[in-house]
Design brief:
Length: about 230
């Protein structure tokens, strides 16, 4: 039995084994107290528990242990998403969009696109003509990826193929703002200095998020085609 004590006085008890993962505990907290897993930070003493895939015993959690729950504000628009991480294919159509089809996006998607456009205005590194009125997206249109991370922020990546190289913009979404923090290509993610020290952002760069997933899908499709040819 693991006891949960929040900073605002909420309590609950999680009936679980020490072989369960931290993710399992967060799911039970969500069920009992209603706080989504991505809004939860759990502390053992003063130690923040970050790895949600870790087994409780490996984190030093024992029977009758008490964990402190810190609930952080969710990123803007989080409740409109079915999952904390995902992908929306062809969120924008291909070609040169003039005028820009704002009606294709919901309120929070359009706010994210506005952050993309603002980044193009203030950073020379953004070299494509992406704006609120028009945008060149290439033949395949644009996909939108998102990932909710341990820092309480959601990271969104707008990906298109306007030239011979994939082109994308990375947006960070917190409880009060959306801001473009970098850009991507087939060579990986480049994040601006103001945001590059974040451990979460460093992990995204190491992962090459979200491109490896795309490469894996393409590789799997190629393997299936080769098997069909055989």
């Amino acid at each position: 039995m693991v006891r949960i004590q929040s900073l605002n006085g909420e309590t609950c008890s999680i009936d679980t084994s020490l072989g369960a993962t931290l993710s399992d505990v967060k799911a039970q907290i969500h069920k009992q107290l209603g706080h989504s897993p991505c809004s939860q930070t759990l502390l053992l003493g003063e130690t923040k528990l970050v790895n949600t895939n870790a087994v409780l015993a490996d984190l030093g959690i024992s029977a009758a242990c008490t964990l402190t729950l810190v609930v952080v504000q969710q990123p803007m628009g989080q409740s409109s998403l079915a999952e904390p991480s995902g992908r929306k294919r062809n969120i924008l159509p291909g070609g040169y969009l003039d005028p820009f089809p704002r009606e294709r996006l919901n309120e929070f998607e359009y706010m994210s696109w506005q952050a993309v456009c603002k980044a193009h205005e203030v950073h020379d590194a953004f070299f494509m003509d992406w704006g609120e009125d028009k945008a060149e997206l290439g033949a395949s249109g644009a996909d939108l990826y998102w990932k909710t991370c341990s820092d309480g922020c959601r990271y969104e990546y707008w990906s298109a193929d306007p030239g011979d190289n994939e082109y994308g913009v990375l947006v960070r979404v917190d409880a009060t703002s959306m801001v473009g923090i970098g850009y991507g290509s087939d060579d990986g993610l480049e994040v601006f200095d103001d945001f590059a020290d974040s451990e979460v952002v460093k992990q995204l760069i190491r992962e090459g998020w979200p491109r490896p997933n795309c490469w894996k899908e393409e590789s799997d499709e190629d393997d299936e085609d080769d098997e069909d040819d055989d």
